[in-house]
Amino acid sequence: MTPPISRDTLRKLPGTRNNDFVASRSIEIMLKDGDCPERIGDILRPICGQTCTGRWRQVDRGKPGSVKFEFEDPADATMFRLTV
To answer: Is 64 part of a structural domain of the chain?
Structure first.
Protein backbone atom coordinates (compact mmCIF):
# COMPACT_ATOMS: atom_id res chain seq x y z
CA MET A 1 0.00 0.00 0.00
CA THR A 2 1.24 3.50 -0.82
CA PRO A 3 1.80 5.70 2.24
CA PRO A 4 -0.18 8.97 2.55
CA ILE A 5 1.35 12.16 1.15
CA SER A 6 3.44 14.07 3.71
CA ARG A 7 2.29 17.42 5.10
CA ASP A 8 5.22 19.17 3.37
CA THR A 9 4.19 17.76 0.00
CA LEU A 10 0.53 18.70 0.65
CA ARG A 11 1.54 22.32 1.30
CA LYS A 12 3.18 22.46 -2.13
CA LEU A 13 0.16 21.15 -4.06
CA PRO A 14 -2.25 23.53 -5.83
CA GLY A 15 -5.12 24.63 -3.63
CA THR A 16 -3.16 24.28 -0.41
CA ARG A 17 -1.67 27.78 -0.43
CA ASN A 18 -3.63 30.57 1.22
CA ASN A 19 -6.39 28.55 2.86
CA ASP A 20 -7.71 31.67 4.58
CA PHE A 21 -11.10 31.94 2.91
CA VAL A 22 -14.73 31.54 3.83
CA ALA A 23 -16.08 28.32 2.36
CA SER A 24 -19.34 28.75 0.51
CA ARG A 25 -19.89 25.06 -0.14
CA SER A 26 -18.57 21.76 1.16
CA ILE A 27 -18.72 18.30 -0.36
CA GLU A 28 -18.40 15.14 1.70
CA ILE A 29 -17.60 11.90 -0.11
CA MET A 30 -18.78 8.88 1.85
CA LEU A 31 -16.39 5.92 1.71
CA LYS A 32 -16.98 2.20 1.60
CA ASP A 33 -15.94 0.04 4.54
CA GLY A 34 -12.20 -0.49 4.47
CA ASP A 35 -11.42 2.58 2.28
CA CYS A 36 -8.56 4.68 3.63
CA PRO A 37 -9.62 8.36 3.86
CA GLU A 38 -6.03 9.60 3.42
CA ARG A 39 -5.54 7.51 0.28
CA ILE A 40 -8.88 8.52 -1.24
CA GLY A 41 -8.17 12.16 -0.35
CA ASP A 42 -4.79 11.91 -2.07
CA ILE A 43 -6.53 10.57 -5.18
CA LEU A 44 -9.18 13.32 -5.15
CA ARG A 45 -6.85 16.30 -4.53
CA PRO A 46 -5.52 16.42 -8.12
CA ILE A 47 -9.11 16.35 -9.40
CA CYS A 48 -9.79 19.50 -7.36
CA GLY A 49 -6.71 21.09 -8.89
CA GLN A 50 -7.90 20.27 -12.41
CA THR A 51 -11.57 21.23 -12.04
CA CYS A 52 -11.43 24.24 -9.70
CA THR A 53 -10.48 27.77 -10.67
CA GLY A 54 -10.80 29.21 -7.14
CA ARG A 55 -9.54 28.21 -3.74
CA TRP A 56 -10.38 24.93 -2.05
CA ARG A 57 -9.11 22.81 0.82
CA GLN A 58 -9.44 19.32 2.13
CA VAL A 59 -10.78 19.14 5.67
CA ASP A 60 -11.27 16.30 8.13
CA ARG A 61 -8.24 14.49 6.71
CA GLY A 62 -8.10 11.03 8.22
CA LYS A 63 -11.68 11.05 9.53
CA PRO A 64 -12.98 7.47 9.13
CA GLY A 65 -15.82 6.98 6.68
CA SER A 66 -15.59 10.14 4.58
CA VAL A 67 -13.44 12.72 2.82
CA LYS A 68 -14.55 16.36 2.91
CA PHE A 69 -13.55 19.32 0.72
CA GLU A 70 -14.53 22.98 1.08
CA PHE A 71 -14.75 25.46 -1.78
CA GLU A 72 -14.70 29.25 -1.91
CA ASP A 73 -16.70 29.33 -5.17
CA PRO A 74 -19.96 27.30 -5.34
CA ALA A 75 -19.34 26.66 -9.06
CA ASP A 76 -16.09 24.87 -8.19
CA ALA A 77 -17.95 22.65 -5.73
CA THR A 78 -20.50 21.80 -8.42
CA MET A 79 -17.80 20.97 -10.98
CA PHE A 80 -15.97 18.79 -8.46
CA ARG A 81 -19.18 16.97 -7.51
CA LEU A 82 -19.98 16.29 -11.17
CA THR A 83 -16.47 14.93 -11.71
CA VAL A 84 -16.33 12.47 -8.82
So the answer is: yes
